[in-house]
Amino acid sequence: MKRIASLLLCALVVLSSCVLFAIPASAAEKVVYVKDGGTGDGSSASSPLGTLDAAIAALATSGGTIKLVGDTTLVSNGTSSNDAYPFNYYKAPTYERQITITSDDLINKAKLIWTDACQWFAIGGSTIIENVKMVNGLTTGQSRVLALGNHLTMGEGLEMYFGETLQDNTTITAGFNGFSIVGLTTAGCDMENMLASDTWLTFKSGVYSSVFGKCHNINTDAGELTGNSYMEFLGDFAVREMGSTSWSGATQIHDLGQAYVTFDAKVTAWRYFPGYNYVGNVPFTCNFFVLGGSYVDSNGAPLALVGAAKVQILNIWSDDSNTEAYDLASQFSGYSITQAGGAVNIDDIKNYKGPAYKPTEDVAPLDGSVVTEPVVTTEATVTTEATVVTTVEVADTTESAGQVTPPTGDASLMLVFVAAAVACVAAVVVIKKRER
Predict the structure, then answer these.
(1) 275 Cα distance to chain centroid
(2) Distance CA 291, CA 313 (A)
(3) 25, 199, 269, 334 — which has fewest CB within 10 A?
(4) 145 pLDDT higher than 80
(5) How many CA atoms lie within 13 A of 32 on its CB side?
(6) Residue 401 has pLDDT above 50, yes or no
(7) Is residue 326 predicted with pLDDT exceeding 90?
(8) Closest to 26 (Cα-Cα) out of 128, 98, 132, 113
(9) What are the tens digits of pLDDT across the range 158-176?
């Protein structure tokens, strides 16, 4: 029996070693700490780096989490090239894997501060901002986050301030100076190689002045946008105005792509236009996938989709077995305006029954897999052809996807366990036979 015990102990040691070597190093997420005035190496809360730029640079290859241990003020490294918008901005270095910006203390959250010296923050890769106090410290106007075509998630636990004033659902009125989130870019910031880019914005909390799926104040002389915009509304947040593509004036940049909006949130807003604002006279299709939630004004009254919104087709998917989703889809279907030249008319709104599409975890349908198929007439409320969204079922977790996906339930790791267990049993059987 002593021999059996000894061999079993050896087998367990081998098993433990196999497990340790089987877990890739990427499973250990890298964390760096930062605050204004920090002089350390970022390895701990007591030794923080001094700028957000230094913290992002430290994670540019590995990805990971930046923890704010105190007030952290954006420091500009660029100036708007548009004389009409003479702003300073911070453009982060490019990073290959996802970076999360959060507070070290989730009870007493740290501040991430925009100032007159740095009004915009342009991210450099897939980014999550969560559990921080975002402070618009400008004298007047909006602070902006520009995604530049990267996946930007405005995560849970966000608190928005204008100066020292906490923003809430009652502040989203005309002239509201808060935060603007832009999927691509804005006037005066580099537009190079972005016209064909898809955009991907996810919202789980916060109070915003504006949200635009593509651009803000980019005009027709920049060219034409051909990528799609993907927007996920998944939490409880408020916004003054938002649109699925771009916002500008009489010379609005043309968008030849489509918008895909997943709606499963409690949203308080002043207005939401599914297409362009103002006079962009180009065909545009917006696809709503309604999973549930609500869409109301600051008084709690249900809202219709309104505004001088250039969109020719509005497709709305919902599951009529889900009462909340079906009611919200019906609320959206009430949208109808009469503006000439590309405005939505009631005949252009199509409603479809059945489970609504939702992106797979951490993977948006950015592969362009959109096909045109006849709608199944037994399931749809109309019998015309319509655009149907499909998506690749296998999630892309490579570095090129810009996502950090720690291995959970890895099949190779399970095989190691099984092999080691079989080896232990076999050793016991052999020893028992010899002892007989």
Answers:
(1) 19
(2) 20
(3) 25
(4) yes
(5) 26
(6) no
(7) no
(8) 98
(9) 999 999 989 988 877 766 7
Which of these, 95, 106, 39, 97, lies nearest to 68 by C-alpha position?
106
Question: What is residue 355's DSSP assignment?
Answer: P
Structure letter (DSSP) for residue 253: P
**Complete DSSP assignment for 14-42:** HHHHHHHHHS-GGGS--EEEE-TT--S-S
pTM: 0.76
Tell how strand 215-216 and strand 254-255 pair up.
Answer: unpaired
What is the band of 259 on the pLDDT scale with cuts at 50, 70, 90? confident
416 or 150: whose pLDDT is higher? 150
Burial bucket for residue 253 (CB in 10 Å: 0-12, 13-18, 19+): buried
Lookup: tokens for 219: 């005009």
Residue 435: pLDDT above 70? no
Helix (H) or strand (E) holding 241: strand 236-243
Euclidean distance between CA atoms 53 and 59, whole angstroms: 10
- Average pLDDT across the chain, whole number: 73
- Predicted confidence at residue 27, as pLDDT, reads 55
Contact call for residues 319 and 356 (beta carbons, < 8 A) = yes
Per the structure block, which two tokens stand in for 81? 């090239």
- Strand-pairing partners, residue 259, are 229, 286
User: 370-374 and 385-389 as β-strands: parallel, antiparallel, unpaired?
Assistant: antiparallel
DSSP 93-114: PP-SS-EEEEESSSSSPPEEEE
Residues whose CB falls within 8 Å of the CB of residue 52, separated by 6 or more in sequence, listed in order = 34, 66, 72, 74, 75, 90, 92, 101, 112
Q: Which one has a higher pLDDT value, 58 or 7?
A: 58
Q: Strands 88-91 and 143-146, how do they pair? A: unpaired
How far apart are the C-alpha atoms of 159 and 424, rounded to whole Å?
54
